[in-house]
């Protein structure tokens, strides 16, 4: 089991950048794939990005490709989401989540552990 805590959210203008962090507890962090999801008011939670256990494989939803970068530092028990060229439609609560599959996943149901979320607000 792991516990996850997100940080790094804030309010920015369109075109700005933010880096979100997901800090995990436990000694088995490297055995979990990690995903980032987001949820806007009145909308369902949607997949943003995911990274495999080793960090060697990544996946992104089409709307963030070329703008967001996911990475992980297992020695620090941390996963990052670098968010560049932010748009108004990126506004949401961002959650990190962990799952035990060897493969990256886009499915909410595949993830067993979730953080509390961090708010990202982009104005235009």
How would you sum up this structure, described in words?
This protein has no helices and 11 strands. Helix content is 0%, strand content 48%. β7 (68-73) and β8 (78-83) form a beta hairpin. It is mostly beta strands and 124 residues long. Strands 2, 4, 5, 6, 9, 10 and 11 form a 7-stranded mixed β-sheet that branches. The protein has strands at residues 4-7, 10-13, 18-24, 33-39, 46-51, 58-60, 68-73, 78-83, 92-99, 113-114, 118-123. The termini are far apart. The mean pLDDT is 96.
Brief summary of the model shown:
This protein has 124 residues and is mostly beta strands. 0% of the residues lie in helices and 48% in strands. The protein has strands at residues 4-7, 10-13, 18-24, 33-39, 46-51, 58-60, 68-73, 78-83, 92-99, 113-114, 118-123.
Please indicate the percent range of residues in DSSP E strands (runs of 2 or more): over 45%
Q: What Rg is obtained from the alpha carbons, in whole angstroms? A: 13 Å
Element string (H = helix, E = strand): EEEEEEEEEEE
Total E-strand runs: 11
* Low-pLDDT sequence parts: none
Q: How does the major sheet shape up?
A: 7 strands, mixed
Approximately how much helix is present in the residues?
A: under 10%
SS summary, helix count:
0
Q: Return the structural class.
A: mainly beta
Q: What would you call the shape?
A: globular
* Cα distance spanning the termini: 40 Å
- The average pLDDT value, as a whole number, equals 96
List keywords for this structure.
124 residues; mainly beta; seven-stranded mixed beta sheet; four-stranded antiparallel beta sheet; 0% helix; globular
């Amino acid at each position: 089991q792991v516990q996850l805590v997100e940080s790094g959210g804030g309010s920015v203008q369109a075109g700005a950048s933010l880096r979100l962090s997901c800090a995990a507890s436990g000694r088995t962090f490297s055995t979990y794939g990690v995903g980032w999801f987001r949820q806007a008011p009145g909308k369902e939670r949607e997949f943003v990005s995911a990274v495999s256990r080793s960090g060697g494989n990544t996946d992104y939803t089409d709307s963030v490709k070329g703008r967001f970068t996911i990475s992980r530092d297992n020695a620090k028990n941390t996963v990052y989401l670098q968010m560049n060229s932010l748009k108004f439609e990126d506004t949401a609560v961002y959650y990190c989540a962990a799952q035990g599959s060897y493969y990256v996943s886009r499915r909410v149901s595949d993830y067993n552990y979730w953080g509390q979320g961090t708010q990202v607000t982009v104005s235009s």
